[in-house]
Amino acid sequence: MDIKGKTAVITGATGKLAAAIVLAMAKAGANCVCIYHKNSKKAGRLKAEPKRAGVKSLFIKADLTKPQNIEKVFAKIRDFSKPQILINAAAVFDKKPLNKITPEYIKNTLDINFTAAILMTKEFVKLAGKKKKAKIINITDAITEKQPAGFSVYSASKAALETATKTLAKELAPSITVNAISPGIIHKPKKITAKIATEKTAGVKKVLNAVKFIIENDSVTGQIINVDRSGDL
Ligand SMILES: NC(=O)c1ccc[n+]([C@@H]2O[C@H](COP(=O)([O-])OP(=O)(O)OC[C@H]3O[C@@H](n4cnc5c(N)ncnc54)[C@H](OP(=O)(O)O)[C@@H]3O)[C@@H](O)[C@H]2O)c1
């Protein structure tokens, strides 16, 4: 699929990595539907980019852990433009040892990192059309292959999304492809920030290349593309 002229829905658009995806999609000529939660300031700044690239954009503020909000989001998208690309990037990320884990923490992590992505996919497929060409990209995390201590809930939420990616690829074939991009640490926690600028550039670039590759290759589906640069947490 050619990116130019398509409409891409991107969740977590105000995120450090996801904002770079928005920019890349706009520069490649896609109209952007940017969904964010609380960071209106960053959303305000980001709005200038699609405009600068000469594409249309729609910014929607919504808490995607509430299923009724997902339906409302798609009612707005329906009035804007029929989408062909969905990028599920919204997530929460926390290091939480076992003795700090609460039922609320587990529920919130799964609600945004897994459930919201699945419900977004469901509504997206309804609107895009199961027989029309479309691309779904889930942003997961290479942490699912490393299993570092302290991330049991976050890792499990991303592992669940990777499994669903493979299943949905079969369910939605042949018109709709479903893939995941699994980055390593790009934006490091503050206490280990040495060399962050170059690492950030390289890590983001790998994700953007993978997004382009998935969208432009109609036969790639059910894949988890690990773009981790190296090392453990
Ligand atoms: N950046 C990295 O180093 C890295 C590494 C590996 C994997 N990843 C994965 O890549 C994806 C993008 O990362 P990122 O760095 O852009 O993430 P980020 O900076 O942590 O941003 C998270 C995004 O999710 C949104 N969000 C959080 N809770 C939400 C809710 N209840 N409803 C709707 N939106 C919600 C936030 O909205 P507001 O800010 O507006 O509240 C924000 O836009 C994530 O899935 C992450 O797990 C990132």
Task: Describe the protein in words.
By secondary structure, the protein is of the alpha/beta class. It has a single domain, classed as NAD(P)-binding Rossmann-like Domain (Rossmann fold, 3-Layer(aba) Sandwich), CATH 3.40.50. The protein contains 8 helices and 7 strands; from the N terminus they run βαβααβαβαβααβαβ. Strands 3-2-1-4-5-6-7 form a 7-stranded parallel β-sheet, with helices on both faces. The N and C termini lie far apart (35 Å). Bound molecules: NADP nicotinamide-adenine-dinucleotide phosphate. NADP nicotinamide-adenine-dinucleotide phosphate binds next to helix 1.
Number of domains: 1
CATH architecture: 3-Layer(aba) Sandwich
Q: What fold name goes in the CATH topology slot?
A: Rossmann fold
| Class from secondary-structure proportions | alpha/beta
Principal-axis shape: globular
- Give unreliable regions as ranges: 192-199
List the bound ligands: NADP nicotinamide-adenine-dinucleotide phosphate
Can you give the helix content as a percent range?
40-55%
Radius of gyration: 17 Å
Strand content: 15-25%
Secondary structure layout plus pairing:
Blueprint: E1 7-11, H1 16-27, E2 31-36, H2 40-46, H3 48-53, E3 57-61, H4 67-80, E4 85-88, H5 103-128, E5 134-139, H6 143-146, H7 152-172, E6 176-182, H8 196-216, E7 224-226
The structure holds NADP nicotinamide-adenine-dinucleotide phosphate.
